[in-house]
Design brief:
The chain is of the alpha+beta class. It is 41% helix and 20% strand. It has seven helices and seven strands. Strands 1-4-5-6-7 form a five-stranded mixed beta sheet. A two-stranded antiparallel sheet has the order 2-3.
Length: 174
Protein backbone atom coordinates (compact mmCIF):
# COMPACT_ATOMS: atom_id res chain seq x y z
CA UNK A 1 0.00 0.00 0.00
CA UNK A 2 2.77 2.44 0.86
CA UNK A 3 4.56 1.77 -2.43
CA UNK A 4 1.47 2.77 -4.40
CA UNK A 5 0.80 5.83 -2.26
CA UNK A 6 4.49 6.71 -2.38
CA UNK A 7 4.60 6.57 -6.20
CA UNK A 8 1.44 8.66 -6.59
CA UNK A 9 3.04 11.71 -4.95
CA UNK A 10 6.01 12.03 -7.33
CA UNK A 11 5.49 13.77 -10.61
CA UNK A 12 8.69 15.63 -11.45
CA UNK A 13 11.68 13.43 -12.33
CA UNK A 14 14.14 16.35 -12.05
CA UNK A 15 13.15 17.00 -8.46
CA UNK A 16 15.84 16.18 -5.84
CA UNK A 17 15.25 12.82 -4.19
CA UNK A 18 15.05 14.17 -0.66
CA UNK A 19 12.29 16.57 -1.74
CA UNK A 20 10.39 13.55 -2.98
CA UNK A 21 10.86 11.80 0.35
CA UNK A 22 9.46 14.77 2.25
CA UNK A 23 6.12 14.29 0.47
CA UNK A 24 5.84 10.65 1.50
CA UNK A 25 2.40 10.13 3.10
CA UNK A 26 2.51 10.36 6.88
CA UNK A 27 0.96 6.92 7.39
CA UNK A 28 3.93 5.49 5.45
CA UNK A 29 6.38 7.45 7.57
CA UNK A 30 4.74 6.10 10.74
CA UNK A 31 4.73 2.55 9.38
CA UNK A 32 8.33 2.66 8.24
CA UNK A 33 9.80 4.49 11.21
CA UNK A 34 7.70 3.42 14.18
CA UNK A 35 6.35 0.00 13.34
CA UNK A 36 8.83 -1.57 10.93
CA UNK A 37 11.90 -3.28 12.41
CA UNK A 38 15.18 -1.44 11.87
CA UNK A 39 16.44 -3.97 9.32
CA UNK A 40 13.49 -3.18 7.02
CA UNK A 41 13.71 0.61 7.23
CA UNK A 42 16.30 0.71 4.47
CA UNK A 43 13.58 -0.59 2.13
CA UNK A 44 11.66 2.66 2.58
CA UNK A 45 13.64 4.24 -0.25
CA UNK A 46 13.25 1.33 -2.69
CA UNK A 47 10.04 2.79 -4.20
CA UNK A 48 11.92 6.00 -5.03
CA UNK A 49 14.75 4.03 -6.65
CA UNK A 50 12.20 1.98 -8.60
CA UNK A 51 10.48 5.16 -9.78
CA UNK A 52 13.76 6.59 -11.05
CA UNK A 53 14.32 3.34 -12.97
CA UNK A 54 10.82 3.54 -14.46
CA UNK A 55 11.37 7.15 -15.54
CA UNK A 56 14.68 6.34 -17.23
CA UNK A 57 13.49 3.16 -18.96
CA UNK A 58 9.83 3.81 -19.67
CA UNK A 59 9.07 0.51 -17.95
CA UNK A 60 6.52 -0.32 -15.30
CA UNK A 61 7.86 -2.25 -12.31
CA UNK A 62 5.82 -4.46 -10.03
CA UNK A 63 6.87 -4.70 -6.41
CA UNK A 64 7.85 -8.32 -5.91
CA UNK A 65 7.10 -8.65 -2.23
CA UNK A 66 7.23 -12.44 -2.25
CA UNK A 67 9.69 -15.30 -2.29
CA UNK A 68 10.09 -18.08 -4.81
CA UNK A 69 11.61 -21.54 -4.58
CA UNK A 70 13.83 -22.94 -7.33
CA UNK A 71 11.91 -25.60 -9.31
CA UNK A 72 14.60 -28.29 -8.82
CA UNK A 73 16.21 -27.33 -5.51
CA UNK A 74 13.76 -26.70 -2.66
CA UNK A 75 16.55 -25.31 -0.45
CA UNK A 76 17.23 -22.53 -2.97
CA UNK A 77 14.85 -19.65 -2.30
CA UNK A 78 14.93 -15.93 -2.92
CA UNK A 79 13.07 -12.70 -2.33
CA UNK A 80 13.02 -10.00 -5.00
CA UNK A 81 12.61 -6.23 -4.97
CA UNK A 82 10.96 -5.51 -8.31
CA UNK A 83 10.27 -7.18 -11.63
CA UNK A 84 9.20 -5.55 -14.87
CA UNK A 85 5.51 -6.04 -15.61
CA UNK A 86 6.36 -8.40 -18.50
CA UNK A 87 8.33 -10.66 -16.15
CA UNK A 88 11.41 -10.49 -18.40
CA UNK A 89 13.85 -9.15 -15.83
CA UNK A 90 14.37 -8.19 -12.20
CA UNK A 91 15.45 -4.89 -10.66
CA UNK A 92 17.41 -5.06 -7.41
CA UNK A 93 17.30 -1.75 -5.51
CA UNK A 94 20.07 -0.71 -3.13
CA UNK A 95 20.47 2.35 -0.94
CA UNK A 96 24.15 2.78 -0.09
CA UNK A 97 26.24 5.37 1.67
CA UNK A 98 28.22 7.58 -0.72
CA UNK A 99 31.46 6.25 0.79
CA UNK A 100 31.05 2.90 -1.03
CA UNK A 101 30.63 4.52 -4.48
CA UNK A 102 34.24 3.69 -5.40
CA UNK A 103 33.38 -0.03 -5.28
CA UNK A 104 31.10 0.46 -8.30
CA UNK A 105 33.41 1.33 -11.17
CA UNK A 106 32.36 0.53 -14.73
CA UNK A 107 30.77 -2.91 -14.67
CA UNK A 108 32.59 -3.90 -11.49
CA UNK A 109 30.44 -4.30 -8.37
CA UNK A 110 31.10 -5.88 -4.97
CA UNK A 111 31.12 -9.69 -4.99
CA UNK A 112 28.27 -9.89 -2.47
CA UNK A 113 26.01 -7.83 -4.73
CA UNK A 114 26.93 -9.94 -7.77
CA UNK A 115 26.23 -13.14 -5.83
CA UNK A 116 22.81 -11.78 -4.89
CA UNK A 117 22.01 -10.95 -8.52
CA UNK A 118 23.02 -14.44 -9.69
CA UNK A 119 21.04 -16.01 -6.83
CA UNK A 120 17.88 -14.05 -7.66
CA UNK A 121 18.18 -14.72 -11.42
CA UNK A 122 18.64 -18.44 -10.73
CA UNK A 123 15.50 -18.70 -8.61
CA UNK A 124 13.37 -16.37 -10.74
CA UNK A 125 14.44 -18.07 -13.96
CA UNK A 126 15.70 -15.04 -15.84
CA UNK A 127 19.01 -14.10 -17.39
CA UNK A 128 18.72 -10.33 -16.94
CA UNK A 129 18.90 -8.34 -13.72
CA UNK A 130 19.35 -4.61 -13.24
CA UNK A 131 21.15 -3.27 -10.20
CA UNK A 132 19.80 0.16 -9.26
CA UNK A 133 21.73 1.92 -6.50
CA UNK A 134 21.21 5.26 -4.85
CA UNK A 135 24.43 6.56 -3.26
CA UNK A 136 24.08 9.00 -0.39
CA UNK A 137 20.57 9.88 -1.47
CA UNK A 138 21.96 11.84 -4.42
CA UNK A 139 23.69 9.77 -7.13
CA UNK A 140 21.81 7.12 -9.09
CA UNK A 141 23.79 4.18 -10.52
CA UNK A 142 22.26 1.66 -12.88
CA UNK A 143 23.86 -1.40 -14.46
CA UNK A 144 22.29 -4.33 -16.24
CA UNK A 145 23.77 -7.80 -15.89
CA UNK A 146 23.41 -10.83 -18.12
CA UNK A 147 23.44 -13.93 -15.90
CA UNK A 148 24.64 -16.97 -17.84
CA UNK A 149 23.63 -20.58 -17.30
CA UNK A 150 27.22 -21.32 -16.25
CA UNK A 151 26.99 -18.68 -13.53
CA UNK A 152 23.71 -20.16 -12.31
CA UNK A 153 25.07 -23.73 -12.29
CA UNK A 154 28.19 -22.64 -10.38
CA UNK A 155 26.02 -20.89 -7.79
CA UNK A 156 23.85 -23.98 -7.37
CA UNK A 157 26.94 -26.17 -6.99
CA UNK A 158 28.51 -23.92 -4.35
CA UNK A 159 25.27 -23.46 -2.44
CA UNK A 160 24.56 -27.21 -2.52
CA UNK A 161 27.93 -27.79 -0.85
CA UNK A 162 27.14 -25.25 1.86
CA UNK A 163 23.62 -26.61 2.36
CA UNK A 164 24.98 -30.17 2.69
CA UNK A 165 27.30 -28.97 5.46
CA UNK A 166 24.37 -27.31 7.22
CA UNK A 167 22.35 -30.53 7.08
CA UNK A 168 25.24 -32.67 8.37
CA UNK A 169 26.25 -30.05 10.96
CA UNK A 170 29.75 -29.96 9.47
CA UNK A 171 30.75 -26.28 9.55
CA UNK A 172 32.85 -24.70 6.85
CA UNK A 173 36.47 -24.08 7.82
CA UNK A 174 37.23 -20.50 8.92
Amino acid sequence: ACGTAFRAHFHEPEEPIFCRLQRMPQFCVRNFVEFVPCARRVNAIAPVIAQIFEEQHGAYLREADYSLVHPKHSWLQSHFDYCVDTGEYLVECKNYNASVRSKFEGTSIPAADMAQLVHEATVFGTDKVYLAVLFGGQEFFLQDFHITEDMKLELIKQMAEVWARVLTKDPLPP
